[in-house]
Model the fold of this input.
Amino acid sequence: MTLSGANAASPTQPIAPGAIPPVWAPAVSAPVPRGLCTDCGISRTQAPKRCGRACQFIDPDYDRLETEVHGRPRDPARPDELHFGPFRRMLRARLNPALPGAQWTGIATGIAEKLLATGAVQAVLTMAPDPDDHWKPVPVLVTQPAGMAQVRGMRMGYAPLLALLEPALAQGYKRLAIIGIPCQVYALRALERELGLERLYVIGTPCSDNTTTANFHQFLARLSPAPETITYLEFRADYHVELRFTDGSSRRIPFLQLPLSELPADFFPLTCRTCVDYTNVLADITVGYMAGQGEQWLIIRNQRGEDLAALLGDALHLSPLGDAGKRAGPVKGFLANTARAAGGLPLRRMPGLLRPLVGWLMPRIGPRGLEFARARVEMKAVETILHLRRAAPARMKSMIPAHVWRLVAPYGLTPKYGEQPADKDRL
Done:
């Protein structure tokens, strides 16, 4: 497969000096079959057994890795670190002018472009669109600043990004950046010390409820009679999904009008329904939307994150985050619905006549800004516990960090015997 001038090559076969294209999609091996896997790429490397100590779905150790990456673990006494992980600053942000083709304004790819232009890194590991399906992600190495224009926008599906570590190292690249989702970033950080890198910058994006590209096409078909004309989809913090089409038109759909209850039970895999790292806590900087209220939400986590934001200079417009509404009611409602779904019962649907009214009210009286982000993180914590209890109860004591139990405690969810690490020796 080629990508706009990119070429494929064996991970162990170096390319002649000077022949690396701007966007390079190396060939990767087939994955080693595993349960609870999002195919971060480690199982496709020459040492697939590293999954046992690198995977966030086996025995995660966030306290240790947060300390290694940020100098300390999250501090529950510091406002919002229990929810979002260690950070220095959180801000609302946008690039002006926005970069063409960006999902929002291009902050993540803009930072990576600057890293390449200044020589701070030799390559960026990220995702490009498949030539035959622009929604399908293809892992690529970008080696020149102009190549970042080819990787902007959202992809949906699984892609073995970390399988490209070996091709990058085979080319002698020791200064790397990565734009990755939480499961990829966790594995990268778990193995970082043994990679022999001179420098590593991690630009993280939040992630939740990923699915296969084929499943995503089914979802698009429920949103439009002509899904092939949809060029853009974004879940927004104003309780709407925005669609854009090939003819230049756009459409906004309230969350409550989405056909989520029509999706098959396995549409979202158990991994994504039990992920405890929505906000990508091991990144140097997290670039998301949840608290942005129409703009992007930056979580600058350490000095490298500060340096990355500074690369954009005056083009990066920053302002304080908003914080309004109350999350308790929506989270309780989500808990009730999730408990029914985890028990195999049908979801309770809101009467059709009420949906337009509630859809109009939520952006005005529901949680907004940081409170919206807190609500979403607590919902993910609820979802993790309830679905693991149903589908993989033996995994709970190793997969659920202590901070997740603290997030759900206000809603009456507490650990049962055998669901915490301290119970391991007593079982």
Remarks:
- The CA atoms of residues 185 and 401 lie 17 Å apart.
- The two ends are 51 Å apart (CA to CA).
- Residues 1-12 have pLDDT under 50 and may be disordered.
